[in-house]
Design goal:
Layout: H1 15-19, H2 28-51, H3 55-77
């Protein structure tokens, strides 16, 4: 048996394997893969009411963002 031959790690693991259990904590890249889409959505929803020009649309977007953040919080609990 050769001592220099090492088994290569599989890089094509599926999304299901990456998102379940402790596999998400294996590297910063995979941790970012899980958290970045949610963080971008949350930050975008918090900034959106500040950029809308009229008072009516600010109110509508604020209500929509509140419901979206509530649904995300239930997603984090699951």
């Amino acid at each position: 048996m050769e001592t220099g031959h090492r088994r290569k790690e599989r890089l094509d693991r599926g999304v299901k394997v990456r998102t379940e259990g402790l596999y998400a904590l294996m590297s910063w890249r995979e941790l970012g893969y899980l958290t970045m889409p949610r963080l971008v959505l949350i930050i975008g929803m918090l900034i959106l009411p500040l950029v809308m020009p009229s008072m009516y649309w600010q109110r509508v977007i604020s209500i929509v963002c509140i419901y979206a953040l509530l649904s995300l919080s239930f997603d984090f609990l699951a």
